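Checklist before submission:
- one chain only
- standard amino acids only
- sequence pasted in full

Submission:
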Amino acid sequence: MKFFRNPEIAASMLWHLFLLILSAILGFSISPAAGYLMAVFSLLYLFSHYLITWKRYRKLEQLSREIDDMLHSQIPIHFEKYQEGELSILENELSKMTLRLSEQAAALLQDKKLLADSMADISHQIRSPLTSSNLILSLLRNPDLTAERRSQLLKDLTQLLSRIDWLVESLLKMSKMDAGTAYLTHIPVSVEELVHRAAEPLLIPMELREQTLSFHAKSQQAQFMGDLSWSTEALLNILKNCMEHTPPGGLISVAFSENTIYTEITVTDNGPGFEKEDLPHLFERFYKGKHAGPQNVGIGLALARMIISQQNGTLKAENRPEGGAKFTIKFYR
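Returned file contents:
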C-alpha cells in the first residue's frame, strides 16, 4: 500500500507498534483482563489515528494533483474543499501563490505580445533607411552621374546612416533600461551644466532653423542626485522634439529651479503643441503623433521618460495656454 511506503508513516507505525506491545505487556503484568483491555484500546487508537492520517494524506495528494493540473493545464483549484487546521493555512498560502502565478502568466503573455510588436516596429524602422541606402548606392554606381547629383546622394546617404546609428544606439539604451543592466550613478548633478550639455549638439541645427534657445535659471545652484550622462540623453531628446516641432524663427525656452521637495526643469516652445488624442500616448514606444515628421521614429520621448523615472523623477507633457508644448521634469529628493 502506497500510504505505508511513506518513510514517515512507516517509522511512525513501528513506534506505535512498540508502544502497543509495551502497553500490553504492562497490562498483562497486572492481570490478563488489563492486558487484553490495553491491547484492544491500543489497537483502536492505532486504527483511528492512521485512518485520520490516511484521509489527510488523501487530501494532500489530491491537492498536489490539482496544483499540477493548474501549473500545466491552467485548471483552477477548488480551495473551498480544504477548510480545516493546517490544510486551511496551506490553502491560504497556495491561494496567494496561484494568484501570483496567474498574474505572472498573464504578464508574460503581455510581454511576449509587446516584444513581438516591438520587434516588428524595430524591423520596420531599420528596414526603411536601409532600403533607401541600398537605392542610393545603386544610383551612385551610375558612371554618368553628375558631380552635383553625386554630392547630394552622398549627403542623403550620410544622413540615413546617421539615422540608423542613432536608432540602434537608442534601442540598445532602451534594452538596457528594460533589462535593468543600465548603470546610473547617484551623485550631485548641476542642472545648469546638464542643460548646457544637452543643448550643445542642437545649437547648429537650431541656428540653421533660425530658432532661439533661451535659459531662465531661478537658482544657479540647482542640482539633484542622479546620472549626468543619462540625464543629458533624456533632456537632449526632449529638446530635439521641441526643435523638430517648432517652426523656423521659433523660440524654445528652458527654465529650472529647486525647492525642498524636488528640482524642476521645464522646456517650452511656441510650436503647434500636441493634439488632444496624442497626449495620452506621447511616451509610448514607436508612437508617432499627428504632427510627427518623416524622420521621427517615436522612441526619443519614451527613452527620456525611462531615464528620468530611473532617477526618482517624473516627466509630464502638456499644452501651454498661450500655445505650444511644455515638458516638465521633476527630480524628487
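Reviewer check: Helices lie at 7-30, 32-73, 85-140, 147-179, 191-199, 203-208, 228-245, 300-309.
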